[in-house]
Write a structure and sequence with these properties.
The protein has 315 residues and is mainly beta. The chain is built from two helices and 15 strands. Strands 3, 4, 5, 7 and 8 form a five-stranded antiparallel beta sheet that branches. Strands 12-11-14-15 form a four-stranded antiparallel beta sheet. Strands 1-2-6 form a three-stranded antiparallel beta sheet, with no helix packed on it.
Amino acid sequence: MNLSKSPLRRVAGMAAGAVLGLAGIAVAASPAYATDAVIGKSVDCDKATGEWVVDWTVKGNAPEGVNKFRFTEVKSEIGFPVEPTTLAEYTVTEDFKHPTNEDIKARQRIAGDKNLARLAVKVEFDNKHAVDASNTVNFEGKCEKKTEPSTPSSSSPAPEPSTPGSASPTPSETPGLPDDVPGEPEAIFEVTCDTMTVGFDNPADGFPLDLRYETSKGEVREVTVAPGESKSETFSATEGFSIDLTISVTAEGETFSETVNLAYPQPADCEDGEGGGLPVTGAAAGGIAGGAAALLAAGGVLFFLARRRKVKFTA
């Protein structure tokens, strides 16, 4: 279904547009709801070893009186192809061992031929409020070990000077990107007091998107968003409702898929029976922005892989 440009849509679009550089979203709300988790990252190429070095930070933001948090789920992956990894600093525990409002740091070394690293966590605070967060690093090119030039031995004869008048070699031309590099989709994520709407705006020059929705209630829907189309699905939602959305993109005969879990961020003011749209401040705004961010993070990974596949075939 096509959606009008509502204020909620604009909030989602603003968050989604910045997600590839987004480390997290901090929001202000009442103490009962003003908690969130933020994952930050930085990356460097260690030319001494030929490895990517990713420095992760996880921070549990909380108001006064909420002092500790714990990890209830940790998912670390590298690719491509995607394979699971572990980070010793981020482990699931029964006790609330991590202080709030402080960066929990971890360093990860990854082979130089990998093209992405991803971290997703679910955390619970000592006030029993649970949130999730994720972030992805897309590596450009390869990280290669720097080779030291060999030193000629003292007994080696000096090189002969080049013959005068010899033609200099013609420099080779580096091929550029093709003109038809596909466009990137825009996430649709909207909530009200009793519904959640999820989908994508696909640009006319984008890849076809296959979407598979599986809800926490067991309902399954499948939708294809062709280039130039805007499609979404709306679900009845209450507290605890979530959707596992699998996004698939096919480029040059190869299919790339990514699944993201989208939890329904119930608005705090829905308990008074007023209903209506979601407020755009406080934890509710953090929920809608976080949902849009998670959507576009998953879509961005697929877009990156599919575009690189297409460029490889057409450059």
